[in-house]
Amino acid sequence: MEIDSTLLQVIIFSLIGGVFSLIGGAFLLRNKKSAQDFATYATPFAAGVLLAAAFTDLLPEAAHYDPAGNSLRATLYGVLIFFLLERYVRFFHHHHEHEKRSSSVLIIIGDTLHNAIDGVAIGAAFALNPSVGIVTTIAAALHEIPQEIGDFGILLNNGMKRSKVLLVNLLSALATTVTAVIMFVLGSDVNHNDNPNIAILLGLTAGFFIYIAASDIIPEIHEKLEKGKRDIRPWLLVLGAVLMMFVSPIAHDYIDAHGHDDGYSEVHEEDETHDEHSEEEHEHEEDEDHAH
By residue range, what is the domain housing residue 116? Predict the structure, then answer.
């Protein structure tokens, strides 16, 4: 299978996710109030995208390659794992905690690990299906923007210079690309029908997205805004989910229609042919048994 063109997509899209988060942080450096307002309204939209990506894209795609249902168990494991990470490692940063003074080192380590996990999810998704990879990248990037704004604010409040904050976050963002490339290369070397590990990784990613949206973001939507502000956050969540539900099939159709040049569709055709041959052999064996 030729993976060069898809590998280039992995690199480009994972870098785009990191660049988006840095743009969000740089926006904070220019206008703190505008950045905070942006995060307030962008976060619920990102939650809707995360939920739709998990339930309408990642899980159905994983189930296709994992009829035994292990990917659904992996989703549950993902929710539990990230709950424990948040409970004991403070892996995620709730936006209402941004005013509290936190260790800069822990913020940087947590952000780098978070970016690395995003990369694993993106790489695994691209290895299974480029369109799923793009949807996963969009969902991860939309959540990263408001989170990076919060992390930038903490680091600045802790006395770190602006130039250093940008450099640290740039290096941290590269973790997404590194792990995405590694996971994609490893995932591209396996037959997905014989090795459901990629599907299980997608299940873990779905659990990751569901937990972030349900535990880290949705509770914030229930918090009251300042007086005088119109609260459209619930509708932004719905908008994010509905928009992703419409965009995802379009992305699938477009990429699948143009996928014959990179070898990806050939692999799926081989998988379908293999399944057809298996069914024919099974029917032939049943006919012989009846004849006997």
Answer: 4-257
The 3-class SS string of the chain reads: CCCHHHHHHHHHHHHHHHHHHHHHHHHHHHCHHHHHHHHHHHHHHHHHHHHHHHHHHHHHHHHHHCCCCHHHHHHHHHHHHHHHHHHHHCCCCCHHHCCCCCCHHHHHHHHHHHHHHHHHHHHHHHHHCHHHHHHHHHHHHHHHHHHHHHHHHHHHHCCCCHHHHHHHHHHHHHHHHHHHHHHHHHHHCCCCCCCCHHHHHHHHHHHHHHHHHHHHHHHHHCCCCCCCCCCCHHHHHHHHHHHHHHHHHHHHHHHHHCHHHCCHHHHHHHHHHHHHHHHHHHHHHHHHHHHC
Do 278 and 152 lie in one domain? The reply is: no
* 149 shares a domain with 287: no
Q: How far apart are CA 109 and CA 37, in angstroms?
A: 26
Residue 253 shares a structural domain with residue 284: no
Structure tokens that stand for 249 in this block: 């099939």
Are 251 and 269 in the same domain?
Answer: no
Residue 186 and residue 167 share a domain: yes
Q: Are residues 253 and 265 in the same domain?
A: no
- Give the model confidence (pLDDT) of 28-56 as tens digits: 667 767 767 777 888 888 889 999 999 98
Whether 266 and 244 map to the same domain: the answer is no
Contact at 8 Å (CB) between 71 and 203? yes
Number of domains observed in the structure of the chain? 2
The reply to whether 252 and 127 lie within a common domain is yes
The pLDDT tens digits for 77-101 are 999 998 888 777 655 544 444 444 5
Residue-wise pLDDT for 164-173, tens only, equals: 888 888 888 8
The CA–CA distances, whole Å, from 32 to 25, 158, 278 equal: 10, 15, 61
